[in-house]
From TrEMBL:
Stated family: Belongs to the bacterial ribosomal protein bL21 family.
Protein name per the record: Large ribosomal subunit protein bL21
UniProt key word RNA-binding: yes
Domain of life: Bacteria
Annotated GO MF terms: rRNA binding; structural constituent of ribosome
Record organism: Eiseniibacteriota bacterium
InterPro entries in the cross-refs: bL21-like, bL21-like_sf, Ribosomal_bL21
Protein role: This protein binds to 23S rRNA in the presence of protein L20.
One GO CC term on file: cytoplasm
UniProt xrefs under SUPFAM superfamilies: L21p-like
Xref: PANTHER family: 50S RIBOSOMAL PROTEIN L21, LARGE RIBOSOMAL SUBUNIT PROTEIN BL21M
Source lineage: Bacteria, Candidatus Eiseniibacteriota
GO biological process, one term: translation
Signal peptide: none
Keywords associated with the record: Ribonucleoprotein, Ribosomal protein, RNA-binding, rRNA-binding
């Protein structure tokens, strides 16, 4: 069984008991989160697609931890112009564990 869910505007394929990193969510570690923007649910041979979301379908997940992603380095350069710029950032992430998919 798997589902495609919209979490913070990003469509993600999830399965039960999966641990995944998503953009930062509100809450404390140990909290239970519910996502109701389920786009698709597959249960073996049957696939149910919503328009745009499935009514009555939801995803329950436990918030495991907040973390920061790897540092991304951005370097801009124009040759023969003495133009160099260095910049970087790290994404704020939340790790969640999928508890159940209700369809």
């Amino acid at each position: 069984m798997y589902a495609i869910v919209s979490i913070n505007g990003i469509q993600t394929r999830v399965t039960p008991d999966e641990v995944l990193s998503v953009p930062r969510l509100a809450g404390e570690p140990g909290d239970t989160l519910t996502f109701d923007q389920v786009l698709l649910v597959s249960d073996g041979d049957t696939i149910t697609v919503g328009r745009p979301y499935l009514k009555g379908a939801s995803l329950t997940a436990e918030l495991v931890e907040h973390l920061r992603g790897p540092k991304l380095k951005i370097f801009k350069f124009k040759r023969r112009r003495e133009y160099r710029r260095r910049k970087g950032h790290r994404d704020e992430l939340t790790r969640i564990r999928v508890s159940a998919i209700k369809a």
